[in-house]
Design brief:
By secondary structure, the protein is of the alpha/beta class. It folds into 2 domains: about 100 residues, 60s Ribosomal Protein L30, Chain: A, CATH 3.30.1330; about 160 residues, SPOUT methyltransferase, trefoil knot domain (Alpha/beta knot, 3-Layer(aba) Sandwich). The protein is about 35% helix and about 20% strand. The protein has 11 helices and 12 strands.
Amino acid sequence: MPITHVTDAADERLADYRSLTDVALRRRIEPEGGLYMAEGAKVIERAVVAGHLPRSILTTQKWLDSVAGMVTPDVPVYVAPDAVLEAVTGFEVHRGALAAMHRPEVASVADIVRDARLVVVLEGIVDHTNVGAIFRSVAGLGADAVLVAPTCADPLYRRSVKVSMGTVFQVPWTRIDPWPSGLDALRSEGFTIAALALADDAVSLADFAAQGHGKVALLMGAEGDGLSRGALVAADHVVTIPMAGGVDSLNVAAASAVAVWALTAR
């Protein structure tokens, strides 16, 4: 494979990796340019195993052997000192390796949910850390897929990928649009739509799980604002996690773990 040693942070061959701490620039580079960033050898490996194609890899000498065998000979590998990586990206690169990955084609909702029994649907969750943590819960606790509403953060943003430990490549997911009317397609596939929210008429998570619904689409919204009125109206049930100690709710990532466990253990 072509291995190139780079000592200048201004080298144009590293343009894909530059200024990633600027959110506006990251959005311009990643979604519109068809790229996302995978950080760390394990995450890069999971992306490649999932069939995602790297455009290039930027790594330190220490981690070169860990990533070199993951790519085909036509993928350039840039090797640079830690200081150059940090100067290019604006942050300390986790485990010394980044890959600029081509985004895969977006699957249809029908393809994603065809064999699923529990789908987690995310609305308005803009914190990349929460999105990544939810994917990790989904993968680890056995839900089948994730659907992401237009108002939700991109699961392939670098921070989401990193926090998920690469499970965004393991869990089938796609965008659901239009929203919330796209939920009708799930209902037509036999899913019961359950909104995780606070409401006077909400049923407890344990009681809902005991009802034995064959297929469930679990809607989860952002902390603070929660699910939109449209999403709540579109749901068949409002479900809540009973709380103690004067606490009204959990962080959305923690709530996802509790809810997925309850619904997969039923």
